[in-house]
Structures are given as structure tokens and as C-alpha cells.
Task: structure prediction
Amino acid sequence: MGIVNDLENKVRDYLEGDYEVTETQTIPSADNVTFGKKAKKMKLCAYCIDLRKSSELLTVHQKQTSEIHKAFLAVASKVVLENGGEIRSFNGDSLLAFWPAYKKSQLDTAVKTAMTTKWLLDIRLSPLFEKYEKIDFGIGIDWGDVHIVRAGIPRDTNNNDLVFIGKCVNFATAIANQAKSPNHVEISDVTYDNLTDDRIYGVSNGTKVDMWKDGGIEWKNSRYKSKFTSWYTKLE
Result:
């Protein structure tokens, strides 16, 4: 009964009383967040990219599925890191990354990352993937307050990690799960409202136009506004 008593005490301790929450403006590493009833809190821009129809890829291209996933995530990861984002989770065919979200420029950077990734995967590198099949994917972005806690087993480096808890994390993931070609990039309305003009407007046929269209998402039994785009940012 030792493990039962230990878990009962642990759960009771976690669920009762207040947590010690420390404000921060820097995304912490696991070493910066201790176990127990402690958490870091900050404003973050959550960025999720998810590969569409991965189960179908597994069925049709069984031998190449791991190569397709690895190539897809290699591109997604490289662009995030080149733009100062911090990757905090891989989940099979998806990636979750974060930027601090205290300035409009930080939200701009996350959106730029998404639009660059769109160009690379959908246009520039697409012929390489099309050797097997043209891939489809969605990128979702939202921002807001996030609590960061360290979860798992203490003193076991293979079985503990940081957990990022906040509405924007779940919402960005939900948006990524629905976004698809040709509108690979979709963001929350609050993200759109806090972008600079450089990330809202583009030029088409010599005319300044809004790059984004009105969208929406069903999430937790409610309908939320979103914005989606088929525009991309080309790397020179």
C-alpha cells in the first residue's frame, strides 16, 4: 500500500491550498521551475503546427511515413528556432512552440514564422514531398497568460518536464487541428487585433489589401472568431 499512500498524499498536497506563482518574462527551462506547488506565469504566444491526414500517410506510405514526418518536423523546427521561438513539445506529427508575448513585434514574429513555413512546405520544398504525396498541414496561433509547472517524477530526468497551461495553448492547438490547404495559417482574433500593419496588410496588383479572412472555430461548445490566410512569406 506504500505507493497508494504516497500518491494519495501527493494528490492531496497538489489539490489543496495555493500555489506559489512567480511572474516572469523569459521562457524558463526545466531547471528554472522546481517541483511542488510552484509555477511560473507569463504572457506567451502559442504556436502549433500539425500534419494533416497522418494516419492516411501511414496506410499508403508505410515504409516512408517516418521519413515524411521527420522531414516535415525538421522544416517546422528550423523555422521556429531561426525566428527565436522555443520548442517545448513534439507529439508525433505536431510541434508546439512559444514566444514571449509582451510586444506586438513578438506576435508578428510568430506569424512571420507561420507564413514562412507555409511557403517552404507548400511551395518551395513541396516537390520533394510530392515524390510520395503532397502534404497538408495547419498552423494555429494564439496568445495569453500561461502557467508553467514542472510535472512528472522528481530526480528522474527521463520522466519529468515542463507543462504549459493556458487557454491560448489549447486554442492554438485546436486551430492547428482545423487549418488546412490553401489556408494553412489560422490565428485567433485577439492575435490579429494585436499585429502590426506589416503582418495584416499585403499588396495585390498594386493595391493594399488585408491578407486575412474571417473564420471561426468550435471549441468547448462555443463558437469563436478566427482569421485565416493563404498568404506566405518567401525567403530570399
The radius of gyration is 20 Å. The helical segments are 2-15, 54-60, 65-82, 104-124, 126-129, 167-178, 189-192, 197-200. The longest strand covers residues 137-152.
